[in-house]
Amino acid sequence: xxxWLGKSLKQKLSLLIIISVLVPVLSLGLFSxxxxxxxxxxxxxxxxxxxxxxxxxxxxxxxxxxxxxxxFLIGHPDVQSYLKTPERDLLKQTSxxxxxxxxxxxxxxxxxxxxxxxxxxxxxxxxxxxxxSEWTDIQSEYPGYYEEYPKWWSPxxxxxxSDGKEDVITMSRPIRSTSKYYNIGMLKISLTQxxxxxxxxxxxxxxxxxxxxxxxxxxILAGPEGYSTNKNLNDYFPGIVDxxxxxxxxxxxxxxxxxxxxxxxxxxxxxxxxxxxxxxAYRAQNQYFLTLTAIAVSISMLFVIAFVLVxxxxxxxxxxxxxxxxxxxxxxxxLPTLPVTSIDEVGQLxxxxxxxxxxxxxxxxxxxxxEALKKExxxxxxxxQINPHFLYNTLSSVxxxxxxxxxxxxxxxxxxxxxxLRFSLNKGQEYCAISQEILHVDHYVKIQSIRYxxxxxxxxxxxxxxxxxxxxxxxxxxxxxxxxxxGILKREGKGxxxxxxxxxxxxxxFIVQDDGVGMSRERLELLREKVSANLGIDPLKNNDSAGSxxxxxxxxNRLQLHYGHEAGLRIxxxxxxxxxxxxxxxxxxxEIK
Length: 593
Hints:
The protein has four domains: 1-301, 2-Layer Sandwich (Beta-Lactamase), CATH 3.30.450.20; 329-384, no CATH class; 386-428; 431-533 and 548-592, Histidine kinase-like ATPase, C-terminal domain (Heat Shock Protein 90).
């Protein structure tokens, strides 16, 4: 990551700006999602509580209707008269049955209405004949209950009538004499449990939420399939807390098993409506909001990224152009001038760069001019010190004196030396024809062959078409000298030195090869390091000036100064087999006059 950031200012700016913009966008998206999630849950709770209140209102009407019916029947003259009369009166019994039938037949939630007398000799009266019942009077379990409580609602129980078997919830209350206020009988109004259950099934709570009707002991009176009546709520939801308020909500369990429990206490009866909504119901709705949020955030991110990239591209394009120019520019060539497309800080930077480039070009030209003048002055001083005409005349005199005495070897050596020095000075000119360079090498070889007779053979293979081309002078002679002194003279017997030139397109490669003693790999690497030492090294401070490295380094430096860095010497050697030194140049096309 760090390497990637370090590559480009454009990458840094793009990443930093994108992060600085996307973090708030993502934060806003997450905040919106959590707000929507919270609102979804609150909406589900509010909707669930409204549903429970609506069901409660329906049940309250049902309970109120049953209670009003009970009050009407308790005070009805026929009921009072039937219960007070000690004899059986079939006519009154029939009249009461008709009354019960008339009051109950139009109410589908009333399963049965029964009037029982305290006199065991009088039969019970109801608009449906009860053949079998599981109902247990609470008075038998708790004596004196009716003196404290005027009515009592039973749990769910079965009874069998002429119409079949039904589950009912029965309200029972004592019938007292209207004149003397003593118990004369019992009134039982049974509500059809299936009607209540069907209404709860249609509650429509969120997701797979269920609605249950509980009695005062948290026993289930009615609910959807899968919930048995008269079982405690804790049997299905272990550890559920007791309901401490008349209505409200709380969470049951945590994490993935979390559910929201809604409860509503009915005011006129000790019943409680409970709604249980699994948390996954919220997640199903939240998934929709999450999808919308993700789409909105993604579109915003794409827009931000595209906008940032376009903006950064516009800002960094001039800087990128400047960097490209500087990276591709050669140190040996003038710096290019960049076009100015704006007047902002980047434009001012390019203007300053163009001024600096122009100033560098002027300084470079000035330095080159001064170096040329210095070199010309040094050469003139050297020529003045040597006084070549006096030297040439003296060598010519020695040459003729040797000839007059018949010493041809001395004459040849002095003649070759005179030609060798004349070419080396060459009036300060740096370039010569390849033929002149080879002739200069021939003079040197002739002098060394007289000095070391029968020690080496010399051969020059230069194609005739290359002889008129021009090259930097004094390149081959130091290589011949190095081959002779450090290769041939150190071997046993006679050796050979070969000079050849090979052309390839515009380039010419010169090779100087000997079969001398060569050198080891370690010494070869050391020699290469010394030859490649910094330009301009002072030979007087070099302890190897008498060795091979100074002459080779001099040639290597001159080649790089005049032909470029790729034109330096290439040295190959193998111990006991000899050494090969080569270099490649692009020659000039016409001979020096």
